[in-house]
């Protein structure tokens, strides 16, 4: 067979040498709780006594957040999916706020010979805290490494909440949870889609700098509407889904997105709802905001009101979600090679626009964008 007739090799994840899973991080023991919280809130002037109150959430679970174990499981699942596709590209892991720290992971990547990485964040939506802040951390880490003479090129998979695969993965979990309620009248079921609350001002400026803003909330509302419609179609129900929020942490004088999940549970109970279905679509795994804010606080609220709380699992390491992440990685690689990629409603650009999801406290460098 001549070179002209040889089949073209599958480019896989070329031009990338490695995949970097970029996580938020979390403590893995009681001694790590306060240092972790100080890193998370650095520069905000939050006193230790307020951090200690938040730390109590972690101490309820032995001072250990589930998030790192969940990231380990996700890395193993992505690794398995890539292997099944014949892709040997390494999958690395770095955290913003706990070991393995991002900078250390990038330094080790360079030592291993990797020069161009594609970054997959464990946050699916568009806002400062769920996208640009990750990009700022990438800029900080690469700047520190550049001072050591270490140069790396990083690209990022865009926010993947609008991807059809993310919707499919969440729909599967929702339908399975609702099937367990066969026989319960629609009027007695409250369907709540839960996500992390953020300041109103952060939501108002989420999205491209020349856009209409409020992209964080709009992405959630679009997904909630799609899931409600599809679940009703599959199950022959007529449920109404609502978006609610958890994990508010700002001062009382600062407006944050509402309603709070506990407040809405109380209102639904007063209206005759007997079962609240809580679907945490704002999270990709059952980390602290899920196991405390929903499985602990919201469940306690429901118990006090004498109603049931059915908590839908997050997409976690489900097959549909992991396959979609692999697809997203392959699409980002194809884009880097100058090839066309599938288009769908709400798809975000891989290179963020100027002014996208700005830092409202101070202007800071951020990678993977036009500014």
What report would you give on this structure?
The protein has about 375 residues and is an alpha/beta fold. The protein has 2 domains: about 20-25 and about 65-160 and about 320-335, Rossmann fold (3-Layer(aba) Sandwich); about 165-310, Rossmann fold. Helix content is about 40%, strand content about 10%. The strands form 2 sheets. A 4-stranded parallel sheet has the order 2-1-3-4, sandwiched between helices. Helix 5 links the parallel strand 3 and strand 4. It is globular. It starts with 17 loop residues before the first strand and ends in a 35-residue tail after the last helix.
Quick one: how many beta strands?
A: 8
Q: Compute the gyration radius: what is it?
A: 21 Å
- Describe the biggest sheet? 4 strands, parallel
> Can you identify the CATH class of the largest domain?
Alpha Beta
Strand order in space, largest sheet: 2-1-3-4
Order of helices and strands: EHHHEHEHEHEHHEHEHHEH
Unreliable stretches covering 5 or more consecutive residues: 1-6
* Domains (count): 2
Shape type: globular
CATH topology of the largest domain: Rossmann fold
Q: Which structural class fits the helix and strand makeup?
A: alpha/beta
Distance between the termini: 49 Å
- Summed up, the helix count is 12
What would the average pLDDT be, to the nearest integer?
Answer: 95
Question: Which terms would index this structure?
Answer:
371 residues; alpha/beta; Rossmann fold; 4-stranded parallel sheet; 12 helices
Secondary structure elements and their pairing?
Layout: E1 18-23, H1 33-40, H2 48-59, H3 67-84, E2 91-95, H4 102-111, E3 116-121, H5 128-146, E4 153-156, H6 164-179, E5 189-196, H7 200-204, H8 215-235, E6 241-246, H9 261-270, E7 275-279, H10 288-291, H11 293-305, E8 308-311, H12 319-336
Parallel strand pairs: 1-2, 1-3, 3-4, 5-6, 5-7, 7-8
Helix pairs in contact: 1-2, 3-12, 4-5, 6-8, 6-12, 9-11
